[in-house]
Description:
With 445 residues, the protein is α/β, with parallel strands linked by helices. Helix content is 28%, strand content 23%. The chain is built from 12 helices and 18 strands. Strands 1, 11, 12, 13, 14, 15, 16, 17 and 18 form a 9-stranded mixed beta sheet that branches. It has an 8-stranded parallel beta barrel with strand order 2-3-4-5-6-8-9-10, surrounded by 5 helices. The longest helix is centred in the middle third of the chain and has 19 residues, at 212-230. The N and C termini lie far apart (55 Å). Bound molecules: pyridoxal-5'-phosphate (PLP). The active site is at residue 365. Keywords: Amino-acid biosynthesis, Decarboxylase, Lyase, Lysine biosynthesis, Pyridoxal phosphate.
Amino acid sequence: MTTETVRDTGANPVVRRVSDWDADRLAALADEHGTPLYVQDLDRTRQNCERLLSAFPDADVRYAVKAHTGRAVLETVREAGLDAECASAGEVDRALAAGFGGDRLHYTAVNPPARDLDYVVDVVEREPAITVTAGAVDTLDRLAERGYDGRLCLRVNPGVGAGHHAKVTTGSAPKFGVPYDRAASVAREAAERFDVVGVHAHAGSGIDPDQLDSHRELVARMGDLARELIGAEPDGNDEPDPLDLEYVDVGGGFGVPYREDAEPLDLDAVAEATRDAVGDLSGLALAIEPGRYVVADAGVLVTRVNTVKPTPEGTVVGVDAGMTDLLRPAMYDAYHPIRNLGGAVDEPDPADREPEPVTVAGPICETGDSFGTDRALARPARGDLLAVGVAGAYGYEMANQYNSRPRPAEVALADGKATVVRRRERLVDLTTVEREATGAEVADR
Ligand SMILES: *Cc1c(COP(=O)(O)O)cnc(C)c1O
């Protein structure tokens, strides 16, 4: 694929870089709401949905909600016209609460805890249009044991995978989906117990311009499987009964450019490659499940510099956000762009400071608690605000309370207005479940 065709479309640019954010606005929000602070722009989230829908006009586009399950984001995505792809009972619950009807809700069960299956089977009584995607015969048996006979999609392990890190490459991981060569027979057997409506594969995250080949391969295999199942290419005798499938779901994994100099994905080229590779689907719909792509560049994490320490190995800039707020660098060695927004007393505007290579590190007692080394930032000073970019996907979502750190606040921007959509956790929130279990009294801090 070529990247020359990626053009800035003006009203809806293909990417928003950390440098595109309004520094004064972010600084005002940080002053008002404190740091660390997630800022999620719902208008940008909507634009990302619109670009996906226009690149894949005939496809079912399902937002993989695990990238960001904030209520405001879910409502934005629903209004933009995407369905919801959920990975747990909790996600199904939140998608329903955000107004997704069962016909727009897909639940993908991966080694599902009994509690999740109980919940979903119960919900399907009220919302029979929900589709359950299962990737193991055991899961099918467990659904049947609960009396489930509704809409079912079979998750297949296509044997090819993409991904920016081994931990997010699922296509070839045996954990996900039934093996490709058993998929047709499992699907046919499943059709005796369920309403089998689709086949599904998700290769992992990080489809980027260099990895389109493995995407193509996955898509082609899924097209072949679907044609086999619907009996589109009968080859003569003893054909099994065709299945009445509705769709082929080729998963998510649409990459976003984390590095400032990385090219954005050419969605039209991906769409074309996908259509080519899947082949003639004889009326079946194509479905995709982008998560990251919808929310990543719509979010930043704003953090304040509290320590600037010269060391023989270079300058370490200490900030008040850590791996508990944004886990991706520690977990995946992920790169997030960082920009100095300024704000330190008696310091010039960052544009008037010399860039200096620094390490940006958080407050957690872990060596991995670093947002990057050798980053050329406008010479940071204590009190400056830094914006950690492209943090809208798997950012707040993976935040946790390790080191007894309350989770940050989140502000959503829409139509020029800023709204706190998740309040900052307080120290008292750290002990809620403990106090509820033991009845212990704790001062309200
Ligand atoms: C996580 C996930 C996605 C979305 O992945 P992204 O890289 O965020 O696009 C899609 N489908 C399934 C089944 C997933 O688990």
